[in-house]
User: What shape does this take?
Amino acid sequence: MYAIVEIAGQQFKVEKDKKLFVHHLDAEEGASVDFDKVLLVDNDGKVAVGTPTVEGAKVTAKVLEHVKGDKVIVFKKKRRKGYQKMNGHRQQFTQIQVETIVG
Assistant: This one.
């Protein structure tokens, strides 16, 4: 059984006991979070497609930890002008583990 769910503006394919990284969620570590925007549910070949979401479907996940992603270097330069700008960025992520899929 799997589901396509929208979490923080992105779509993920989730299965029971699957771990994944999503954009930072405002929940404490060890807390349980529910996602109601379930777009598709496949239950052993029986597919339910939502318009836009599946009625009564819900995905429950547990927050494992909050982490930072890899550093991304942003370098801007204009040739022959003496302009150089270097900047770095580390995205905040939340690691979650899917516990149940109801649908």
Summary: The beta strands are 2-7, 10-15, 19-23, 32-35, 38-43, 46-49, 58-78, 83-102.
